[in-house]
Amino acid sequence: MEPTIAARALSAATEITTTALSGDDPGTVLGSVVRHAAELADADLGLVMVRADDGHVTVESAHGEKTAGLLGLVLPAESAAGTVAAGGEPIVTEDVTSDPRTSRYVPGELRSYGPFAAAPFGKDGRQLGVLTVYRERDREPFAASTVEMLTAFASQAGVVLALAEGANARHRVTLYQERERIARELHDVIVQRLYAAGMQLDRVRRRMRKRFAGADGARLGEAIDQLDQTIEEIRGTVRALRSPDPEPHAPEPAATDLAESARAEVRIAGELLGYPPTLELSGELADIPAERADHVRAALREALSNVVRHSGASETRVSLQRDREGVRLRVRDNGCGVPHDVAQRGLRHLSERAEAAGGRFFVNSSPSLGTLVAFDLPLR
């Protein structure tokens, strides 16, 4: 490489590296790479093509007067660019459309060019793409030394893409952590408050039913139903926020202290029942995976809700146990049982939760013996 060209190439490479490390948009940095490469090669067109898993290459950045329609252009793995991107040797030729090494699969958008040179780039042994330059047909071919310069700039493109991948991964991790925080606030704070408000309204409606006119009682019932629906919608939002992230190395949601959650649910139920339910805790409950803990908490909340709303019980016992098999929840009351005319939506949802998570859910209920709700969930 001529000393003057070498000095210009070094200056350009330094500029590109500084820009890439400053966190600029990767597309902008790739544009700088291909612009400098095309100018130093005295080319009419420069392209950066990124390789996909199946070997085809896609134009990600272009520089030149005739770039319309080139961005997003896909070339097959068997094309010259695809072959070079796959780890083949750099290519330089007088005519891209007639040289047997390059003439196959030249798209119509590039057939007006003759002289052609290409150099692959990658990172940590992984082939990422190819940097290509073109000249119009009536111009001189590229010198062999051009490939040396192209190879230097191709490595710059590899660094840019590697940095972009790292930035995207960090962004996904940050986004996932924020989603988990929002989900936990929705579930542990907002849902709990709505649940308590709905239960209080229901208790007011049942105690003061005779004092309400029919229309007022109906409106209060509708308000309670809307709260129930809102709680279910928020739970759906929480499940969506906690859905598996496509990044395989994203962190798992933080484990949940299920014992503390159970105490909070029982405390709310006790305020509404007028007496504190008995709570028995057994085993290590402080490190339950968040998704599993949500299932158990939903089962406990639904069971206690039914006790408050329908049972008329004077005694309620909650047992939460962790053993080698998983987590076992039992909620027993000495009330009148689950009325036949009561909507079973909540219990049906718990049955579906248990089935989807590989667990078991059942209810035993009678007017003379009260109600037992059981929810068993494996942790593996």
Verbal overview:
Pfam families: GAF_2 (PF13185), HATPase_c (PF02518), HisKA_3 (PF07730). The structure is a single chain. The model is unreliable at 166-174 and 244-252 (pLDDT under 50). The protein has helices spanning 3-21, 26-40, 80-85, 145-207, 214-241, 258-273, 290-311, 345-356; strands at residues 45-51, 57-64, 74-75, 91-93, 113-123, 126-136, 278-282, 316-322, 327-333, 360-366, 370-377. A 6-stranded antiparallel beta sheet has the order 3-2-1-6-5-4. Strands 7-8-9-11-10 form a 5-stranded mixed beta sheet. Helix 2 packs antiparallel against helix 4. The chain is of the alpha+beta class and 380 residues long.
Reported for the largest beta sheet, the result is: 6 strands, antiparallel
State the helicity in percent bands.
Answer: 40-55%
End-to-end distance: 62 Å
Low-confidence stretches: 166-174, 244-252
**What structural class should be given to the helix and strand makeup?**
alpha+beta
For the secondary structure, the number of strands is 11
Helix-strand string: HHEEEHEEEHHHEHEEHEE
Mean pLDDT: 77
- In percent terms, what proportion of residues is strand? 15-25%
So what's the overall shape? rod-shaped
Q: How many individual helices?
A: 8
Radius of gyration: 33 Å
Biggest sheet strand line-up: 3-2-1-6-5-4
Domain GAF: 25-171
Organism: Prauserella cavernicola
Pfam families: GAF_2, HATPase_c, HisKA_3
Keywords: Kinase, Transferase, Two-component regulatory system
Please outline what is shown here.
This is GAF domain-containing protein. Residues 25-171 form the GAF domain. The protein is of the alpha+beta class and 380 residues long.
